[in-house]
Sequence to fold (201 residues):
Amino acid sequence: MNIQPKTFRATTDLTVGRATFKTGEVVPSGPHLDRLIAYGFVAADEAKTTTPKTTKEGSDHAG
Amino acid sequence: MLADPVVLESPVITIDSIDYVCAARSVRLIPSDMKADVKTFCNPGGERPSSTTWTLDVELLLSFGAVNTGTWNTLNAIRKLRKTCTVKYDDAATTVSNPLATFDIYVPTIPFVDGKIGDSMPVTITAIVIGEPVFTTA
Fold:
């Protein structure tokens, strides 16, 4: 099952019917959204990823 | 001040990522606004535009060869399938002065032979756009 994020943004300036979106503007869900995603004109917001914290242990090397 | 009129010389006409410009001799992407009846006592002749239907017409010359070479072979291979098309008036970069229209159609089945002695064989692809074209300027 394809779970889609909730927020999609225009990757370029685009016009669909009477609606116009600037680059970066949120595109609401609607009948055109799947097509816009397929064309590459709309992309999902990047999921926030958390990078695990690394600890620097045992780094005392005698030079 | 309005921009200078453009002349259609080197358009981009792609169907399923194949550019048909060298096989084509005309291209049309034409809207048609339906009209809604909004007659009232105060506006007895009332009508206003409602939904819009876009139609793609491409006149191209039949040729035969491998897929992606012959127009008949290429289009026959994707007949009745939903495919993405793009059109713009010039093959330069997409800008506000050279917008790109992107849309889906169901590719019609095209004629196999249609001509008279000594003639080339122009055929016209006519397809209703699914939804509305997306116009981009960058």
Notes: Residues 71-76 of chain B form the longest helix (6 residues). The two ends of chain B are 22 Å apart (CA to CA).
